[in-house]
């Protein structure tokens, strides 16, 4: 059993950068990654905008043959995992592979492959369906492919909790190391759902923004003019280690992972609880797990989807959890720039929270031009703020009533 777990590596593939350095710099500049959809012809769709990953070279990094046998969501995960391992300075040749785990989740898995191969089935018949359909579409395959790619032989599975997936994956990785089952876990989330059926489905449940005339202003969390989230894609992966293992190999510690809390609203399939009860409980349990009190928290990376209900109810949850201290918090929704990466959101936002602690700079919530009076907290509007952050929280809320919160703090020996 071990008490302390630290973050030693970060890997990111996002709509604002194909690596962690580019992504972080884009966030601090308030750069939006949202534009018109290029991955398919979106003419006739209610939403014709998305946050796509540009300049992604999966074949160049993974090899043409290998990349072609992976759905886009698995490619993202593999590339992000390689960057995270390099950032952590981990050489698998010198590691005990049995003590290295992989927990990378996805909310919808290989939806692109399913969509493409269903067209093949209808147009060309069952014998023309790809033999790689099943391994490409399975939601656990991002985690499985990373495990095979790097030779990690410890626990390897995928959590699925909709938009809380990446957060729960990292939380369970924390618990796995605490239990003594692994020394190192590569954890996070990945998603690639910008395809016809993905956009049409979210449009059908009226979740997406239809601000097609101004893509970069479409994701506007906590603003009066918000009308839905913008679908994004990418992956966020971090390397967690027991402190003992990290110190033994002389690792550069980015932050300490201190707490995890998860709860269920048990309320509605898509809408958050109107009193924020479940989200507040997840936050409470994460803070307690970290051995802290609410007043210790300096920054919250909010779920902040830019939907009318989420932002209002998450604000209620923050007030319910933090009381008067809610007004002292710096809070931002980086989805204003990256869009909503569904199961990958918690992975990239955990990484952003770690970087906020490490760098002492809080990324902004852009497009807060007319703040909603019911969302009256400090959402760090439009410009990044330099501020020392000792404790950061990352929140994720998912369809099905899932709530998950992570707590990171500055590392002290």
UniProtKB/TrEMBL annotation:
Pfam families: ketoacyl-synt (PF00109), Ketoacyl-synt_C (PF02801)
UniProt pathway: Lipid metabolism; fatty acid biosynthesis
PROSITE patterns reported in the protein's UniProt record: KS3_1, KS3_2
Reaction(s) catalysed (UniProt annotation): (9Z)-hexadecenoyl-[ACP] + malonyl-[ACP] + H(+) = 3-oxo-(11Z)-octadecenoyl-[ACP] + holo-[ACP] + CO2; a fatty acyl-[ACP] + malonyl-[ACP] + H(+) = a 3-oxoacyl-[ACP] + holo-[ACP] + CO2
Signal peptide (residue range): none
Listed SUPFAM superfamilies: Thiolase-like (SSF53901)
GO cellular component: cytosol
Active site, per annotation: 163 (for beta-ketoacyl synthase activity)
Enzyme nomenclature, EC number: 2.3.1.179
Gene3D superfamilies in alphabetical order: 3.40.47.10
Ranges of residues in domain Ketosynthase family 3 (KS3): 2-410
GO terms for MF: 3-oxoacyl-[acyl-carrier-protein] synthase activity
Keywords: Acyltransferase, Fatty acid biosynthesis, Fatty acid metabolism, Lipid biosynthesis, Lipid metabolism, Transferase
The protein's enzyme class: transferase
Matching NCBIfam families: fabF, PRK06333.1, PRK07314.1
Family label: Belongs to the thiolase-like superfamily. Beta-ketoacyl-ACP synthases family.
Annotated function: Involved in the type II fatty acid elongation cycle. Catalyzes the elongation of a wide range of acyl-ACP by the addition of two carbons from malonyl-ACP to an acyl acceptor. Can efficiently catalyze the conversion of palmitoleoyl-ACP (cis-hexadec-9-enoyl-ACP) to cis-vaccenoyl-ACP (cis-octadec-11-enoyl-ACP), an essential step in the thermal regulation of fatty acid composition.
Protein name as annotated: 3-oxoacyl-[acyl-carrier-protein] synthase 2
Species this chain originates from: Candidatus Lucifugimonas marina
Gene it is expressed from: fabF
């Amino acid at each position: 059993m071990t008490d302390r777990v630290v973050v030693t590596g970060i890997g990111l593939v996002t709509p604002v950068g194909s690596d962690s350095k580019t992504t972080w710099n884009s966030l601090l500049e308030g750069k939006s990654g949202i534009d018109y959809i290029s991955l398919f012809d979106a003419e006739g769709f209610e939403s014709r905008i998305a946050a796509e990953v540009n300049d992604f070279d999966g074949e160049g990094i993974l090899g043409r043959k290998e990349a072609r046998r992976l759905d886009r969501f698995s490619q993202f995960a593999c590339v992000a995992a390689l960057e995270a391992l390099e950032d952590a300075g981990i050489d698998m040749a010198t590691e005990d592979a049995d003590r290295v785990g992989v927990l990378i989740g996805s909310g919808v898995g290989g939806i692109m492959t399913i969509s493409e191969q269903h067209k093949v089935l209808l147009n060309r018949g069952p014998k023309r369906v790809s033999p790689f359909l099943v391994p490409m579409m399975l939601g656990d395959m991002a985690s499985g492919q990373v495990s095979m790619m790097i030779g990690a032989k410890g626990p390897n599975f995928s959590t699925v909790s909709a938009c809380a997936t990446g957060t729960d994956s990292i939380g369970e990785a924390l618990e796995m190391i605490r239990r003594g089952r692994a020394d190192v876990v590569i954890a996070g989330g990945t998603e690639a759902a910008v395809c016809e059926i993905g956009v049409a489905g979210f449009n059908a449940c009226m979740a997406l923004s239809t601000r097609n005339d101004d893509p970069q202003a479409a994701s506007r969390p906590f603003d009066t003019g918000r009308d839905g989230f913008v679908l994004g894609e990418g992956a966020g992966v971090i390397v967690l280690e027991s402190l003992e293992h990290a110190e033994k190999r002389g690792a550069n510690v980015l932050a300490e992972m201190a707490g995890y809390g998860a709860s269920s609203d048990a309320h509605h399939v898509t809408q958050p609880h109107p009193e924020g009860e479940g989200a507040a409980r997840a936050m409470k349990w994460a803070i307690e797990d970290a051995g802290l009190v609410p007043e210790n928290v300096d920054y919250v990376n909010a779920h902040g989807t830019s939907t009318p209900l989420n932002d209002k109810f998450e604000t209620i949850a923050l007030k319910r959890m933090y009381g008067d201290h809610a007004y002292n918090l710096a809070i931002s929704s980086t989805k204003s720039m990256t869009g909503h990466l569904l199961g990958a959101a918690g992975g990239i936002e955990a990484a952003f929270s770690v970087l906020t602690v490490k760098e002492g700079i809080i990324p902004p919530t852009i497009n807060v031009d007319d703040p909603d009076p019911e969302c009256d907290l400090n959402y760090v509007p439009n410009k990044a703020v330099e501020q020392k952050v000792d404790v950061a929280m990352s929140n994720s809320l998912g369809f099905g009533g899932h709530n998950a919160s992570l707590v990171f703090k500055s590392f002290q020996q």
